[in-house]
């Protein structure tokens, strides 16, 4: 099993159905109360790539991509059009978008992340597949220069500074990102007749942990 650093055609993922999935175990007690717990620290995303197929050319492109990944065997990048930026969907990323760490004066490597906050609570999502050419990094109020102040590990979503930032400095970043996924089936069933009649194949895609 390997991960292919290639993105599923963005024009085919546009319009797809999907989003985050959680696993919660709910136990109903005899007194009517509930106990709730989750074995997952991180959410997992699922999508249906078949919804956005519009033509037989789209089917051909899907099949070529599916065969090159050997079905479920190899992972790939997926653009989630509803959530692919460090900021709001309507604006461009800036280096102040997300605080990813507070420097300790020793560490030089910092993983990218995105924080989802609501009602005083938050969830920090690891970002492991940033998009090349979109990542902006800052230390407190100063934007850093790629290739001079820091380098990027695009395969793992890590910022690598040339020198350790001073202790107490806020490390911030803005970026676009993909979701690491694989096909959740080893079978793609298509019919020219049914497709022309408006039916589309079911092509499940699921996020993988790296």
From TrEMBL:
<dbReference type="Pfam" id="PF09343">
    <property type="entry name" value="DUF2460"/>
</dbReference>
<protein>
    <submittedName>
        <fullName>Uncharacterized protein (TIGR02217 family)</fullName>
    </submittedName>
</protein>
<dbReference type="InterPro" id="IPR011740">
    <property type="entry name" value="DUF2460"/>
</dbReference>
<feature type="domain" description="DUF2460">
    <location>
        <begin position="4"/>
        <end position="209"/>
    </location>
</feature>
């Amino acid at each position: 099993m390997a991960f292919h650093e290639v993105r599923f055609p963005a024009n085919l993922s546009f319009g797809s159905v999907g989003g985050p999935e959680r696993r919660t175990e709910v136990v109903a007690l005899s007194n009517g109360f509930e106990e709730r717990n989750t074995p997952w620290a991180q959410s997992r995303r699922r999508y249906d790539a078949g919804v956005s197929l519009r033509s037989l050319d789209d089917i051909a492109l899907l099949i070529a991509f599916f065969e090159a990944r050997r079905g479920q065997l190899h992972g790939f990048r997926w653009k989630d059009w509803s959530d692919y930026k460090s900021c709001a969907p309507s604006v461009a990323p800036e280096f102040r978008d997300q605080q990813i760490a507070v420097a300790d004066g020793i560490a030089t490597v910092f993983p990218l992340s995105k924080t989802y906050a609501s009602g005083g609570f938050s969830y920090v999502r690891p970002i492991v597949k940033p998009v090349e050419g979109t990542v902006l990094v800052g230390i407190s109020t100063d934007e850093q220069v790629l290739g001079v102040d820091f380098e990027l590990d695009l395969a793992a979503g890590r910022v690598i500074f040339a020198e350790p930032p001073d202790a107490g400095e806020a490390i911030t970043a803005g970026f676009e990102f993909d979701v690491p996924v694989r096909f959740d089936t080893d079978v793609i069933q298509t019919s020219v007749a049914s497709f022309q009649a408006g039916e589309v194949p079911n092509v499940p895609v699921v996020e993988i942990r790296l």
